[in-house]
Amino acid sequence: MGKDSSTRPAPPSGRRAERNRQAIVAAARELFTREGFEAGMDQIAAEAGVSKVTVYNHFGSKEELFTEVVGQAMGEAHTTMAELAARLAGADDVREVLLDTARALVEAGTDPARLALRNLVTGELRRFPELGRAYQHSGPARSAAALGEVLTELCARGRLDIADVEVAVVQFFSLTLYPHLIAASIGGALPADLADRLLRDGVELFLQRYQAS
Amino acid sequence: MGKDSSTRPAPPSGRRAERNRQAIVAAARELFTREGFEAGMDQIAAEAGVSKVTVYNHFGSKEELFTEVVGQAMGEAHTTMAELAARLAGADDVREVLLDTARALVEAGTDPARLALRNLVTGELRRFPELGRAYQHSGPARSAAALGEVLTELCARGRLDIADVEVAVVQFFSLTLYPHLIAASIGGALPADLADRLLRDGVELFLQRYQAS
DNA sequence: TTGTTTCTGTACTCAAGAGTTCAGTTGGCG
DNA sequence: CGCCAACTGAACTCTTGAGTACAGAAACAA
């Protein structure tokens, strides 16, 4: 009967509505990554070229909008790693491809927009506890799983010899990507030359341990 | 001449004032780490058992108080690493001591209060850009330098053989501490058994590469 | 003791920003 | 065309929290 008081009116639909929705999320993403969660709804609405009321028609609250933004960014993040893993799986020269993978991983992982979002999630963990878990699950965890499968595959094909794949996966991330994330988490960045040595040496270290003899 | 309009009245001095100052910083630290920068000044004053006005007599603003809290925590953080490095320097059995060092490092680095503060700094980077640099400089950078010296020393004594000490230092941190920091930065924690394998295996990996032959 | 500094408690100002209201407009679908 | 859902814009409410004012009490120093 009539309107359910616990259900808010369905979000707008239609051509225009869809356009607006996209614009809002894009604007929100832009502003959140640039100014943090402090970015104002008025500001976001303005940037999206839309009235504030429209924003609230699409997303019931700021929290909801933020969740949408972060959620959207996650899918993209994992895509990268999935592609990398695919390329790695068919490798002939493991060293070569592992180096490429590491390079691409670092490049993707140090993209300023992505880093800003990462740090944003970190900072708003208290406000969005679920978001941390979601981020973990649909980002890092899936990437780790993907890399794990590939490493297992490479073991089966006799290119690598890894006793504890779970550990090896973490080590690979640790030796390549993590130093950058750590630096970025306090607003810094690794000097280019150190980053380069770290990358080469990291892959070397990894192979020295796990390359099939 | 009288009072300089650009200079605020000197902070209170005296026995009682000192006691209060301590209490305020302690309370602020407690509340900031527990509730983030959103913790209210009223709340802090109450926790310190002091009037809000008193807080403002000692620290001109919330920003100032926050800076004081973080600054204070930094000194302590480095102390740990300095001690570890000292113990490591005189090592006979490098493997053994390296393992201990790693264990202690992880233990210290995963202390909830410290992690909370780390993540807090990450989240407030936009508000306090200097703080990131200060944190970097007086925490990680000093610790890295300390470990670097020790590794160099161990090379000189023929226990290790490291070509690029700067890289080796980062690798050591990466293989032991960083996975924990990364997990914590999105609100997670490594499963105990994985953490354990990671630690042992990390040290092994490190030694396999750098132990003098 | 006496004078000064510091502290208390309460009540206040002020600014910012989330979310709402509403009367009126516009885009798009049948 | 003609209707309705979606949108505008501007003014408005409410909450929250930083920082202040002030008059009186307590500590402390000389």
Provide a descriptive summary of the structure in words:
The structure is a homodimer of 213-residue chains. Chain A is elongated and about 65 Å long. Chain A has 2 domains: 1-60, Arc Repressor Mutant, subunit A, CATH 1.10.10; 62-210, Tetracycline Repressor, domain 2, CATH 1.10.357. In chain A, helix 7 (129-156) packs across helix 8 (165-176). Residues 1-6 of chain A have low confidence and may be disordered. In chain A, 75% of the residues lie in helices and 0% in strands. The first copy, chain A, has helices spanning 15-35, 41-48, 52-58, 62-89, 94-109, 112-123, 129-156, 165-176, 178-185, 192-210. The interface between A and B is large, with 43 and 43 residues.
In short:
Two copies of one chain form a homodimer. Helix content of chain A is 75%, strand content 0%.
CATH architecture of the largest domain in chain A: Orthogonal Bundle
Structural class of chain A: mainly alpha
Number of helices of chain A: 10
Q: What's the CATH topology label of the largest domain in chain A?
A: Tetracycline Repressor, domain 2
Rounded to the nearest angstrom, the radius of gyration of chain A is 21 Å
Overall strand count of chain A? 0
Percent helix among the residues of chain A? over 70%
The CATH superfamily of the largest domain in chain A bears the name Tetracycline Repressor, domain 2
CATH C-level category of the largest domain in chain A: Mainly Alpha
Largest interface: A-B, 43 and 43 residues
Major sheet characteristics of chain A: none
Give the H and E element order of chain A.
Answer: HHHHHHHHHH
What oligomeric arrangement do these chains adopt?
homodimer
Mean pLDDT of chain A: 92
Q: Point out poorly predicted stretches of chain A.
A: 1-6
Q: State the end-to-end distance of chain A.
A: 73 Å
Q: What's the number of domains of chain A?
A: 2
Tell me the strand percentage band of chain A: under 5%
| Overall 3D shape of chain A | elongated
